[in-house]
Amino acid sequence: MGLGVLDRSRVVAPPGWSRWLVPPAALAVHLSIGQAYAWSVFKTPLEKALGLTGVESGLPFQVAIVMLGLSAAFGGTVVERRGPRWAMALSSVCFGGGFLVAALGVLLGQFWLVVVGYGLLGGVGLGIGYISPVSTLIKWFPDRPGMATGVAIMGFGGGALIASPWSTAMLAGFGSGTGGIAATFALHGVVYALFMALGVLLVRVPPENWKPAGWDPGRAAKRGLVTAADVSAHNAIRTPQFWLLWVVLCFNVTAGIGVLEKAAPMITDFFHPGPATAAGFVALLSLTNMLGRFVWSSLSDLLGRKNIYRLYLGVGALLYLVLVLVGNTSRPVFVLATIAILSFYGGGFATVPAYLRDLFGTYQVGAIHGRLLTAWSVAGVLGPLIVDGIADAQAAGGRSGPALYSTSFLIMIGLLVAGFVANELIRPVAQRWHEPAVARAEEVRAQ
Question: At residue 12, what are phi and psi to the nearest 5 degrees?
Fold first, then answer.
């Protein structure tokens, strides 16, 4: 974009600029795109207004998640090259514009436009927006990368806590017919685009060779897997470390998303609570998912990334075993175990960018993160497929209650143990994959 206002060269922070302004910029984007977790609010109104089935009403969300993974994977290198302001602006246009296209689709009674708008266009906004601040945050906070990425990614987990009641209030005010849904979508598109624009205006990148006062990268590199070298995205995916971490993230997410997707029916099958209690349980899991992203990722700065994933995977497997053995005998045990599992699910998302930085350096960490998010796309299909598929099969066989889930819980234990082993196998990246310092410096100056 040359000398355009969105170009990386126009966003270099001036002397004295506070790095603590970057996390709010990231939050402005992640709180907005986190609306995706609240799509269920629109399912029933769309089904009634457009005559859709439950599967059809979930299609825009499913397409959006697939596009999130694909756009993050294929767009990560471009995001690194063009900079965070360009990426946030693109995300704002796509995510906000996706709502506007979806509004037009509802108004015209053309559901395919809703899928194209929210799913395809909005999904690109999700993926680019998700990775847009990661590399910048890590470069501003090399001393606390887990905390920095945890703040931003916490916003994605918490976006639904804002979007769900807001969307519900809009539908109540405008009505749940086609006109009301279209007005709600349109208002969402405009407001989210404006809110994300705050991040576009606020974000800055650090000057070349900047580092926090008193921070010694050489001393930090002596801690376990932390490296002072850099690996390109092209080379990173050729290393065993990348694919081991892909397995770790995929299985950790699979174990969490299976519970999250089935939360209300699951607690109903176990304990038969009323609808209000089941809804409160879902809200509690969402809150835990959000808080786990900040708490556990921040703690990883002290304990180390490998150790914190030992917690996510090892303790997670033990908690699933508790659910198999005694989960149906005590509601408090069931609730505590599931909220801990969901906190590990959220923590895994927030900690993985810092783990990538430790292994591959800061050079193209955003692009590497984008490629790793394909693990999320796989887990997003695998987790619900395991839990829903087995529950349906058990119900068809005449079983009910906790028996619907015991087999899927045992599978989750196996996946988490496999993830634990993959984490144990991760070692420092071999020197042959490191970027030559001279070549890297020349590319940075060319940007």
Answer: -70, 130
In this prediction, residue 111 carries a pLDDT of: 95
Interatomic CA distance for residues 322 and 124, integer angstroms: 39
Tokens 């634990």 map to which residue?
420
3-state SS class at 160: helix
Q: Interior CA angle at 147 toward 143 and 149, to 5°? A: 105
d(CA 342, CA 347): 8
Whole-angstrom distance, CA of residue 340 vs CA of residue 333: 11
Q: Check pLDDT > 60 for residue 445.
A: no
Please give the biggest Cα pair distance in the chain: 69
| Contact yes or no for 401/391 (Cβ under 8 A) | no
SS3 12: strand
Segments in 177-329 forming alpha helices (H): 178-202, 217-220, 233-236, 240-261, 263-271, 275-303, 305-310, 316-326
Handedness of CA 332, 323, 161, 199 (dihedral sign): positive
Q: How far apart are CA 262 and CA 409, in angstroms?
A: 13
Cα 432 from Cα 235, distance rounded (Å): 10
Which of 264, 261, 260 is CA-nearest to residue 285?
A: 260
pLDDT more than 90, % of the chain: 55
Length of the chain measured in residues:
447
Assign 442 a pLDDT band (cuts: 50, 70, 90): very low
- How many CA atoms, within 13 angstroms, populate the side-chain half-sphere of residue 52? 23
Residue 379: pLDDT over 70: yes
Instruction: Give CA–CA dist 174/423, Å, rounded.
Output: 50
The amino acid present at 222, given as its one-letter code, is K
| Full-model pTM | 0.85
Q: Which residues of 84-93 are buried (b: 16+ CB within 10 A; e: fewer)?
A: bbbbbbbbbb
**Cβ atoms of residues 195 and 32 within 8 Å:** yes
Q: Which residues fall within 8 angstroms of residue 115, CB to CB, at 6 or more apart?
A: 59, 60, 63, 105
**Long-range own/partner contacts, residues 334-337 (CB < 8 A, 24 or more apart):** 334/267, 334/270, 334/271, 335/281, 335/284
Quick one: which of 62, 203, 33, 35 has its CA closest to 129?
A: 33
- Please enumerate in sequence order all residues whose Cβ is within 8 A of that of 86, keeping only pairs 6 or more positions apart, or say none: 1, 6, 7, 8, 79
The 3-state DSSP class for residue 13 equals: coil
Q: Using the predicted structure, report yes or no on whether residue 213 has a pLDDT greater than 90.
A: no
